[in-house]
Write a structure and sequence with these properties.
The protein is of the alpha/beta class. The chain is built from 11 helices and 16 strands. The structure holds flavin-adenine dinucleotide.
C-alpha cells in the first residue's frame, strides 16, 4: 500500500462518488476497495442468464431526486429511462394502490367518493377512536386513516417488516407514507426519476473509469489497515461499529432475504413491486424486475421474481435498515466521539453514518463532503 494517498473503502454509490471527486477535483489518485466481488454496493444489479432480465441483487432500486446537482452528476455517466414507480398491495386476495389514495379507499369500502369528500369520510373513520396525541405507530396510523385501513394496509406489513407490534414502534415512522385524496398513484413525486438506461453496473463502471482511480474487489479493509502509510486519508463507507471492533456494542439492523425464481410465464404480476399486507403471507413483497425497464424487450417467455423476507440481523448477515432504537442512538453517539478522534479517517455512507439514505441523498452527502473536506487533507 506504499504511496497510497486516498483509500476509499467500499465501492457503493457513496464510495464511487468520492473516488470520482478525488480524481476530478483534486487531480489525485484514489484506490477503491470492496470486500465483495462487485462494484455498486447495494445498488448492484446483474443479468439473469435464463431470461436476459436485469435483476437488482439487493432489492429493487429506483432512482429519484429533487436535487438538480445529483441528477447532473449522475447524467455524466448514464441516461435514465422514463420508469415511474407504482406500488400495488395485495390484501385478502384483492389489489389496491399504495400509498393509500382515492382508488384504495373507494375500492376497499366499495364506495365512490369524490376528492373533496375524502377528508370528511376519513375523519369520520379516525374519529371513531378519538386519538388526539398519538403515542406510537398504531395510534398515529389510526389517527390518519382510521382502524379499518390501518388493519388492512399497515398492521400486517409492519409486523412482518419490523417483527414488532406497531404499538411498540415510534409514531414518526409513518410520516413517510403520504395519504392522498386523488387517484395519483406515482410512488415518488420527485422531478427527476428513472432507472439507469444501461443498468446500474454500467453506471458504476463509468464513474470509476478514470485514469486516477484504481479498483480492487474481494479486498477487506481490515486485512490491509495496518499496511497503510500514515499520510493516507481513509474514506470508510463500511459499518462504523465494526471499525471500532464493536467496543460500544453492536448497532442493530434489519436484514432481508431474497428468494429468486424464474417464473415460467411471460409476466407474473404486471408490476415491478407487489406488497403483501396479509400477516399469514410470510414475505413482504414480490419484485418482478422486467417491469423496471418497459423499453426493453424480454423475448424469453419467462420472467424473474424475488420474494422478500424481512429478518433479524446478526453479525455476518447483510445490514439493510437501521433499527435506530434509543440504545442504538446512544451507541452511535459514542462511536461518533471515537470517529472524531481519528486523524484522516472519514466515516461516510449508510453504514459509516448508520443512517438510511436514498441513493440521491447518499450522492449529495458525498458531494457535499468533498466540497468541504477534500482540500483540507
Ligand atoms: P453500500 O451500498 O452499502 O456500499 C458500502 C460498500 O462498502 C459495500 O459494497 C460493502 O461491501 C463495502 N464494505 C463494507 N465494509 C467493508 C470492508 N471492511 N472492506 C471493504 N469494503 C467494505 N435508494 C433509492 O434511492 N431508491 C430505492 O429504490 C432504494 N431501494 C432500496 C431498497 C432496499 C431493500 C434498501 C435496503 C435500500 C434501498 N435504497 C434505495 C437505499 C440505497 O441502497 C442506499 O442509498 C445505497 O446503497 C447507499 O450506498 P452506500 O455506498 O452508502 O452503501
Amino acid at each position: 500500500m506504499e504511496g497510497c494517498r486516498h483509500l476509499v473503502v467500499g465501492a457503493g454509490i457513496t464510495g464511487c462518488t468520492i473516488a470520482r471527486q478525488i480524481a476530478e477535483e483534486l487531480g489525485e489518485k484514489a484506490l477503491v476497495i470492496d470486500r465483495r466481488d462487485h462494484i455498486g454496493g447495494n445498488c448492484h444489479s446483474h443479468i439473469n442468464e435464463d431470461t436476459g432480465v436485469e435483476v437488482h441483487s439487493y432489492g429493487t432500486h429506483i432512482f429519484h431526486t429533487k436535487e438538480r446537482r445529483v441528477w447532473d452528476f449522475l447524467n455524466q455517466f448514464t441516461e435514465f429511462n422514463s420508469y415511474r414507480h407504482k406500488v400495488v398491495t395485495t390484501y385478502e386476495g384483492r389489489t389496491f394502490h399504495m400509498p393509500v389514495n382515492l382508488q384504495t379507499i373507494n375500492s376497499f369500502f366499495g364506495i365512490s367518493l369524490k376528492p373533496h369528500e375524502v377528508e370528511d369520510f376519513i375523519a369520520s373513520k379516525s374519529a371513531e377512536e378519538d386519538i388526539t396525541d398519538p403515542q406510537n405507530l398504531e395510534e398515529k396510523a389510526i389517527s390518519i386513516i382510521g382502524r379499518e385501513l390501518y388493519e388492512a394496509f399497515v398492521k400486517g406489513y409492519t409486523l412482518k417488516q419490523w417483527e414488532c407490534d406497531p404499538k411498540e414502534l415510534d409514531a414518526s415512522i409513518i410520516t413517510r407514507l403520504p395519504f392522498r385524496h386523488t387517484f395519483e398513484c406515482d410512488y415518488f413525486t420527485d422531478r427527476y426519476q428513472g432507472l439507469p438506461w444501461d443498468g446500474y453496473t454500467k453506471l458504476f463502471e463509468r464513474i470509476l473509469d478514470h485514469e486516477l482511480i484504481e479498483t480492487r474487489l474481494n479486498t477487506d479493509f481490515f486485512e490491509l489497515k495496518d499496511t497503510l502509510p500514515q499520510e493516507c486519508a481513509i474514506y470508510y463507507t463500511g459499518p462504523i461499529d465494526k471499525y471500532f471492533d464493536y467496543c460500544h456494542g453492536e448497532l442493530t439492523w434489519r436484514s432481508l432475504r431474497f428468494e429468486y425464481r424464474v417464473e415460467d410465464v411471460p409476466d407474473y404480476q404486471g408490476t415491478s413491486v407487489m406488497n403483501y399486507a396479509d400477516i399469514d403471507v410470510p414475505y413482504t413483497r414480490i419484485h418482478e424486475y422486467q417491469h423496471l425497464h418497459p423499453e426493453r424487450e424480454n423475448t424469453s417467455g419467462r420472467t424473474v421474481t424475488s420474494r422478500e423476507f424481512s429478518m433479524k440481523w446478526k453479525q455476518g448477515d447483510e445490514p439493510y435498515y437501521p433499527v435506530n432504537t434509543d440504545e442504538d442512538r446512544k451507541r452511535l453517539e459514542r462511536y461518533f466521539e471515537e470517529a472524531a478522534k481519528q486523524e484522516n479517517v472519514h466515516f461516510l455512507g449508510r453504514l459509516g453514518q448508520y443512517k438510511y439514505y436514498d441513493m440521491d441523498k447518499a450522492v449529495l452527502a458525498a458531494l457535499e463532503f468533498c466540497d468541504s473536506k477534500l482540500n483540507n487533507n
